[in-house]
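Exercise 7b. Backbone tokens:
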């Protein structure tokens, strides 16, 4: 069976300067009154810089697709893909799961790539609404399926740990494209399989 692969690399147009990030993190913490002389905190600016660099840098991967030789035309769905990102408004994490599915066209996707695509768009400052749409649009463009569905359920620490402090609150967003948007039965099947009522 032949396959094709598209190399996917995040290009933010800038390079990571860990030295500058560490210096800025130290200044940031000092400005908030956090003393860095204590042995436990002395290395915190460096750890902080490396942690955010990791959060903002997705791993490159190959988007591997295969011919849909059998003409499979039912839903392919990966449920509960772990997701972590950072709210672009407060730079606090939000974590949850993504349900990503598609109705195959001429090609099918290596299943692990659904998780890779979620990671690819999550590793940057984000809002959940945009993240949901970016994943769906990217799959539609690069796979040309008959339909795409993406649902994200996430807890935002900018909402649960600060401000309103609504602990336990989750936010649900969805994007449906193609048949999954236009056909009520296909849409219902998608939501039913994800365990979310439409």
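Sequence design result:
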């Amino acid at each position: 069976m032949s396959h094709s692969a598209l190399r996917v690399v995040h290009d933010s147009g800038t390079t990571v300067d860990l030295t500058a990030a560490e210096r800025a993190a130290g200044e940031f913490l000092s400005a908030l009154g956090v003393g860095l002389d204590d042995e436990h905190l002395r290395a915190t600016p460096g750890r902080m810089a490396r942690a955010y660099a990791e959060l903002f840098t997705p791993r490159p991967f190959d988007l591997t697709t295969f011919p849909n030789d059998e003409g499979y035309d039912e839903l392919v769905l990966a449920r509960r893909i772990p997701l972590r990102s950072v709210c672009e408004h407060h730079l606090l994490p939000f974590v949850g799961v993504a349900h990503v599915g598609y109705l195959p066209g001429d090609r099918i996707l290596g299943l692990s790539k659904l998780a890779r695509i979620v990671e690819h768009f999550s590793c940057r400052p984000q809002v959940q609404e945009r993240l949901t749409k970016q994943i769906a649009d990217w799959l539609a463009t690069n796979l040309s399926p008959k339909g795409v569905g993406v649902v994200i359920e996430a807890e935002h620490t900018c909402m649960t740990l600060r401000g309103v402090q609504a602990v336990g609150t989750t936010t649900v967003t969805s994007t449906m494209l193609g048949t999954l948007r236009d056909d009520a039965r296909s849409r219902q099947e998608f939501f039913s399989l994800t365990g979310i009522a439409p």
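Instructor comment: DSSP finds seven helices and eight strands in the chain. The first helix runs from residue 18 to 31.
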